[in-house]
């Protein structure tokens, strides 16, 4: 029996928990802030139901084999109390969040601990506590190695495409090229497709090109076709298509602004790369009503 604790059963965490519960060899423990009774995930291949153990108090939690962190990046500090209870000498911690700083974000909280960074491409939303909708089966990518292989093994009974790759850095930056463009929808509260015009394309292209330039300086391989693909996706985004940052802004919550756009500005400065469009969106979104917490 593999004990897996999931911290943060929101849109993505609830979806991942629902899938992992389908394997009888897993004991899944859901670590929640808002109470929930059970899980129901509407997936592209049917509905998953599960009733794992749910904890809302870290005190009774014990060390587990795997901790999967699925809070927003701005809630990582608050998740520390869970890590203090759940992490023992043999525990591996996987971070399933957006951005490129998965490991450094946790280094101070978990000194010397094995941390498995995961790039997740699974669009999911939550309609109520424990009620998730997974729009696409999607994929998860972790770095090659023993921990990566074991992480992939956790998902053996699921229909999610989970793999370990040699060049994780390029995958993480490639995903950031997509996510940084999400700042437009977060700011306008509209999908980009229905309001597309040449001026909007200049902004989307600017966000993504700046990200790609910083990515390449950080050693990532980003083909020009990836940049064009993101722009094409934004051009064709149908009405209602948002992202997890626009969901946060719409709900009046904090945003992962630093993890998704601020990081491009910060690392751009390090490399002497100008990032004015990302800086503009960081400034405007930070001033838009939701506090920017790093
Ligand atoms: N949603 C998506 O489509 C995708 C999201 N991602 C990334 O995945 C990560 C998670 O995103 P998403 O699932 O959308 O976020 P949500 O806001 O939907 O979920 C975050 C969850 O973390 C919980 N939480 C916050 N603090 C704590 C705490 N101290 N203890 C326990 N639980 C806590 C929240 O509790 P509460 O229930 O009280 O809100 C919520 O359930 C982000 O980094 C995001 O960028 C990546 C790919 C796709
Ligand atoms: C764009 C998407 C849905 C891709 O998985 C995402 O990463 C997010 O909404 O944060």
TrEMBL record:
Pfam families: ApbA, ApbA_C. InterPro entries: 6-PGluconate_DH-like_C_sf, 6PGD_dom2, ApbA, KPA_reductase, KPR-Related, KPR_N, NAD(P)-bd_dom_sf. Residues 4-145 form the Ketopantoate reductase N-terminal domain. It catalyses: (R)-pantoate + NADP(+) = 2-dehydropantoate + NADPH + H(+). One of its GO terms (molecular function) is 2-dehydropantoate 2-reductase activity. Keywords: NADP, Oxidoreductase, Pantothenate biosynthesis. Catalyzes the NADPH-dependent reduction of ketopantoate into pantoic acid. Belongs to the ketopantoate reductase family. NCBIfam families: apbA_panE, PRK06522.2-2. This is 2-dehydropantoate 2-reductase. It comes from Devosia litorisediminis.
